[in-house]
Amino acid sequence: MSAPLEWLVLVGIGSPAVLFALLAATSLVNRPLPERWTATLAGTAMTVACAALSLALVLHRATGTGIRLLTYGEWSASYAGGITLEFLVDRLSLAFAALSAAILGVVSAFSNRYLHREAGYNRYFVLLAMFATGMLLVALAGNIAVLFVGWELVGLSSALLVGFFHERPAPVSNALRVLSIYRISDAAMFSAAVLLRHLAGTDSLALLFSGVSVLSTVGLTQTSATSIAVLLIVAVAGKSALLPFSGWLPRAMEGPTPSSAVYYGSLSIHAGCFLLLRSAPLIEHSVVARLLAGGLGAATAIFAAITTRVQSDVKSSLAYAALTQVGIIVVEIALGWYRLAFVHLAGHACFRLLQFLSAPNVLHDLHGMEDAIGDRPALAGGLVDSVSGRMRHRLFLIAIERGFVDSILDRVVVDPFTRLTRRLTTLDRWLCDVVVPAERPRFAEEGEDQDE
Amino acid sequence: MSDARLLLAGIVALPFLVIALSYAPVHVERLRRFAVGSAIVMLLAALVVAVSPSARALSIRSGALTWVPAGEAIIRIDALSAVLLPFAASLWLLTVAVTPRASLDRGGLRRTALATLVTLVSFLTESAVVLLLLSVASVWTFLSALAEPAHRRQRRIAAVYLGCSTVIFGAGVALLISPGMQGTIRETVGLWLIVVAALVRKGIVPFHAWVPEVFDHGRLGPAILFTAPQLGAYITVVLIVPRASPEMLRTIAVLALGTAVYGAALALVQTSARRACGYLFMSQSALVMAGLDCTSVSALAGGLLVWLSAGLAFAGLARCVLVLEARRGRLDLTRYHGGYERMSVLAISFLAMGLACTGFPGTLGFVGEELLVQGAIDLFPVMGFAVVIASALTGLAVVRMYFSLFCGRSDPLTHSGLPLGLKRREAWTFGALVVALIGFGIAPRPLVDSRFAASNEILQQRRARLAKVERSAGASPRTSGAEDTP
Predict the structure, then answer these.
(1) How many Cβ pairs closer than 8 A exist between chain A and B?
(2) A234-289 tens-digit pLDDT
(3) Which residues from chain B sit within 8 angstroms of residue A83, using beta carbons?
(4) C-beta atoms of A77 and B409 within 8 A
(5) How many domains does chain B have?
(6) Which residues in chain B have Cβ-Cβ distances shorter than 8 Å to A149?
């Protein structure tokens, strides 16, 4: 491992990982670092990561190499079957990683002031460092195992930050809801990995995402490629809040504003788009997958564009506005406009980050604007104004109820699951009663069942 | 006596010392301190055994309990048991160090030492008869912990299930060790009986109902100590895997995978933290069982690794529940309890150990599950999907428990003076366990390599035994043919 590129990538990923390890260790022993130290260390780690990855991008461009797989050796075992630590380096992955590191640096500096003297200051930075590590692993993963590590770190840190203000019940229950959808996404992605390993005997993303003829390279049939692609699209839909999983997005706004900005404005919500972009060579081979991705993207964009107009708080409104653009990016990928999709993704991530970070000031800014122009700014009308009154009323109802997405998921998935598992619990109790009959009526325990 | 024998004798003597001291008029807190010291010494000595190649050559063979001419190892240290010794010592240390003072008594410390001794000796033997005797001893120790009238029903339920399991195990061992049984239908019946006994003991569906009931309404501490070492898994590795047909192993794996998903799904909706722990144990123990029943080296190594990680992580998680119960009473998952700020170390430890149970990246469980899936993927792809679903559901169940037990409400000001934080002994123990689970998750190679070595040994034994059976089956017709020929 002597090449400068390999060192730069290692430093880029390693610096937030070291920060995470340090902050987590001090939390575990209940000796959190002082705020100033935490801020300095976080700023340094993000700056180093951003500089290293930007340099790596420049170096990669200068040497003109295409896709490179940087292998750092077997991580988990000396035997075959262990996890290999490898990173996939090309223009797309390095650009996304450098962008992520830059955005995380900005958010880290902003958060330092925003959360000054907040009770969970240290916890916030632990989770931000965890997220940074996960995001860079997702961007640069060279095999499914490494990608999965990053994907999981992003998911858990996201859910724990939604529940950041954990002394109130609402953020906590919303965090659990967000995590439920993330787990579906994780399961879909890991299932895709299992299928890929079973069918193609590899978990190398270099082969899968190489851009050359994927099917012949890894020996996949059309049907198997479609199955893997569909599972990946489900994973993307969960992570990027595409329909039918959009319900978690407004719930995720319970977290502190800087985390909402970095997760749901700029990076986490685009992680799905990035994965889709990465796996484009595979999806290209499946018409079904392209139609599915395009359909989901378009439906999400339209739904979010309508819903954003009726939100009563600025963060939810911005979240749905971000979702509109995410839907459009997914459509662009489905259409094969990859370069446009990446430029759109990068631009939108930066723009929405700025909007989210300035959201707490929105009233102040509006007052300033009113003072400057001497009147209230005119509201935009647009397409909705041309819709008839009755139709507009229906659209309003759908938008205000956020498309009934949560209640539909509850009815179709959550309620049957809960009913079934409760019956199985009762069955288990009955099995014990058969063996040793209960000595007295168990009213309390029956009540317990009904509570849940 | 060689150094290895001396070391082993010392390790085994430590629980005896604690048992002996428990009869002396010593204050119970002092007895606990002695037990903690003994457990630490045992852990260090067991680690020396685990890393010392000369200790691993130890084998005391005898023909007294078997008809096999070469005899069998009554006591031996091989690649499998070398790592299980520190595992048993860690469980003992965890138990004695974090048991709340309110539930600490002389009898409990004695039972804990006895249970550790039984576990330790079980991990040292490959004799079916010795394992049967130790199984009886461990069940008796566990049932004696449920002797109080409040747990009478749970004791009876456990007695029925575990009693049946022990009787079936005995019948299976009797058939297995009878002379001339190798390769016959009676050996197969014996193996099936042992399989059923192991499934009951590990709480695999449909023999599982006792587990959540005992966790919920029985005594949680003894239940953890009885279940976490997973003697059922050991019986499977030593007696079943080397002898079983592929169909038998596949049947066990299918039942185990079903249980892994079943346990995780039911853990997600429980209203009692204890019952949720019971279902989580079922799910984790089933994953271990599924891994052990694969004939691929890496899947088996994955199963052995999940055994260690799930055993330690689950025991730690359930101990966290017990510590929390000592401060708050019975824990109901239908409401939020709050208190993170005052018990942050306990909350972080709970989450870290829960995540280690689910195979979260960066923990030992992740490496184990990854090997399990990767090893089984060619022969048994269903395992991959089942592990994915079980892991997703377990993760959700653990985070739900974490949110309910530590978040969701602020501490009432009136009780802000109550000391709810961990004692130094508890904090060090939980901290060390978390560091071990994450440390081996980040740098897993030494442990993974040792599990691969154990896995290779087990599969070599299996191949040698199957080859012998095939040879004798091939020889039989020839023999009969020879007999037919005048």
Answers:
(1) 182
(2) 999 998 999 888 888 888 888 888 888 888 888 888 888 988 988 888 888 888 99
(3) 367, 370
(4) no
(5) 1
(6) 361-362, 366
Number of domains chain A is built from: 3
pLDDT band at A447 (very low <50, low <70, confident <90, very high): very low
Query: Rounded to whole angstroms, how far apart are CA atoms B257 and B90?
Result: 27
Confidence check: pLDDT of B72 > 80: no
A29·B345 Cβ contact <8 A: yes
Q: Is residue B323 part of a domain?
A: no
Same domain, residue pair A342 and A418: no
Confidence of residue B121 (pLDDT cuts 50, 70, 90): very high
Interchain proximity B448–A418, CB inside 8 Å = no
What are B318's two structure tokens? 């359930």
Q: Count CB-CB contacts under 10 A for residue A207.
A: 19
Query: In which domain, by residue range, is B65 found?
Result: 1-126
**How far is residue B366's CA from residue B371's CA, in Å, rounded to a whole number?**
9
The alpha-carbon gap from B338 to the nearest alpha carbon of chain A, in Å, equals: 7
User: What average pLDDT does the structure give for chain B?
Assistant: 86
Q: Give alpha helix (H) positions in B55-151.
A: 79-98, 106-124, 128-145
pLDDT of residue B482: 35
pLDDT in tens, A314-328: 888 888 999 999 999
Range of the domain at A21: 1-140
Do the domain assignments include residue A81? yes
Interval B284-305: pLDDT, tens: 999 888 888 777 888 888 889 9
> Interior CA angle at A88 toward A84 and A91, to 5°?
170
User: What does the alpha-carbon distance between residue B273 and residue A83 come to, in Å, rounded to a whole number?
Assistant: 34
From the list B209, B375, B391, the residue facing A81 with the nearest CB is B375
A392 found inside a domain: no
Mean pLDDT across A390-394: 84
Structure-token pair, residue B51:
């890393």
User: Which residue from B324, B301, B400 is spatially nearest to B358, judged by alpha carbons?
Assistant: B400
* Closest among B172, B180, B316, B311 to B248, alpha carbons compared: B172
Does residue B16 belong to any structural domain of this protein?
A: yes
A107 inside domain: yes
Q: Which chain A residues have a beta carbon less than 8 Å from that of B348?
A: 27-28
Interval B208-248: pLDDT, tens? 999 999 999 988 889 999 999 999 999 999 889 888 888 88
Domain membership flag for residue A336: yes
Cα–Cα dist B189/A364, whole Å = 80
